[in-house]
């Protein structure tokens, strides 16, 4: 096991990017304490391993707590046993407080991306794909914290019914994605809407919206919706797009073409 809290294990300053892979023993625990040695680590990629969790409250690996690692990018790919990234009571400070990019792909047992207790005020880009167990992406409390999010990519998640999952269907409070410019929703066969609740949404900077192969989507939002800069909903990567005055009306019109199946070339994130 990589984790060690021996006194002679000092901080490592030169490494800024690190990849962990091929931890196939199911008894292996994610070496969060060991990673604290990499004081200047900015980019972490974890692939092809059997970890059941990534960050726990009160991790068993507690060495080097005097150092502060501040990740900028986290990629979790092909972690088929992963059940959660952050424990419900996990405190983001300080390890992830500066994270700007989060990529989660091919984690089939994952039930949620963010617990309600986790806020990402500096997140710029979120990319989630091929996670068969997900039914939603975030709670309203997390959504309201994403004030710097610019790009949102959700694709190929067979169970997702909504992006923002409200706990109270009568809650009509407004959620603002202040800096979101680009949203891509692709190959989500059970997606019905961005949020099935009554929340209002504001997207003051949204200019690109892709809704491709989402045959169950009947409307974008059931609450008040404001996206003043959006003038098209794209149904293919290139070429075909629609606009019928507002997002909801456009989505309903697109819904009349549910039988269409498009050839998709994913946009790079």
How are the elements arranged and paired?
Elements: E1 17-21, H1 32-35, E2 43-47, E3 53-55, E4 73-77, E5 84-86, E6 101-105, E7 125-129, H2 140-143, E8 151-155, E9 174-176, E10 182-186, E11 200-202, E12 208-212, E13 225-226, E14 233-234, E15 241-242, H3 247-255
Strand proportion = 15-25%
Label the structural class. Answer: mainly beta
What overall geometry do the principal axes of the alpha carbons give? elongated
Specify the helix fraction band. Answer: under 10%
Measured between the Cα atoms of the first and last residue, the distance is: 33 Å
Total DSSP E strands: 15
Strands of the largest sheet, in order across it?
Answer: 1-2-4-6-7-8-10-12-14-15
**Gyration radius, rounded:** 20 Å
The overall pLDDT average reads 84
Order of helices and strands: EHEEEEEEHEEEEEEEEH
Discrete helix count? 3
What oligomeric state do these chains adopt? single chain
Low-confidence region ranges: 1-7, 60-66, 259-269
| Biggest pleated sheet | 10 strands, mixed
Describe the structure.
- The protein has 269 residues and is mostly beta strands.
- The chain has a domain of 154 residues.
- It contains 3 helices and 15 strands.
- The strands form 3 sheets. It has a 10-stranded mixed beta sheet, with helices on one face. Strands 9-11-13 form a 3-stranded parallel beta sheet, with no helix packed on it. A two-stranded parallel sheet has the order 3-5.
- Helix 2 links the parallel strand 7 and strand 8.
- The radius of gyration is 20 Å and the shape is elongated.
- The chain starts with 16 loop residues before the first strand and ends in a 14-residue tail after the last helix.
- The N terminus and C terminus are likely disordered.
């Amino acid at each position: 096991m990589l984790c060690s809290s021996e006194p002679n294990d000092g901080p490592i300053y030169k490494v800024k990017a690190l990849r962990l892979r091929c931890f196939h023993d199911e008894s292996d625990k994610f070496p969060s304490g060991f990673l604290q040695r990499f004081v200047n680590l900015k980019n972490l990629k974890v692939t092809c391993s059997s970890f059941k969790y990534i960050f726990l409250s009160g991790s068993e690996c507690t060495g080097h707590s005097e150092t502060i690692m501040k990740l900028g990018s986290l990629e979790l790919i092909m972690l088929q046993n992963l059940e959660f990234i952050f424990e419900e009571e996990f405190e983001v400070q300080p390890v992830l407080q500066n994270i700007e990019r989060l990529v989660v792909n091919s984690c089939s047992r994952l039930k949620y991306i963010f617990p309600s207790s986790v806020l990402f005020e500096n997140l710029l880009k979120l990319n989630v794909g091929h996670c068969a167990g997900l039914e939603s992406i975030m709670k309203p409390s997390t959504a309201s914290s994403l004030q710097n999010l610019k790009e949102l990519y959700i694709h190929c998640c067979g169970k997702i019914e909504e992006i923002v999952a409200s706990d109270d269907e009568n809650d009509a409070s407004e959620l603002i994605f202040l800096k979101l410019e680009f949203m891509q929703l692709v190959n989500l066969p059970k997606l019905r809407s961005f949020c099935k609740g009554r929340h209002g949404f504001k997207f003051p900077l949204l200019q690109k919206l892709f809704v491709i192969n989402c045959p169950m989507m009947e409307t974008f939002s059931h609450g008040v919706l404001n996206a003043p800069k959006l003038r098209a909903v794209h149904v293919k990567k290139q070429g075909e797009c629609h606009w019928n005055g507002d997002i909801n009306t456009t989505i309903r019109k697109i819904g009349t073409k549910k039988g269409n199946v498009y050839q998709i070339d994913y946009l790079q994130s």
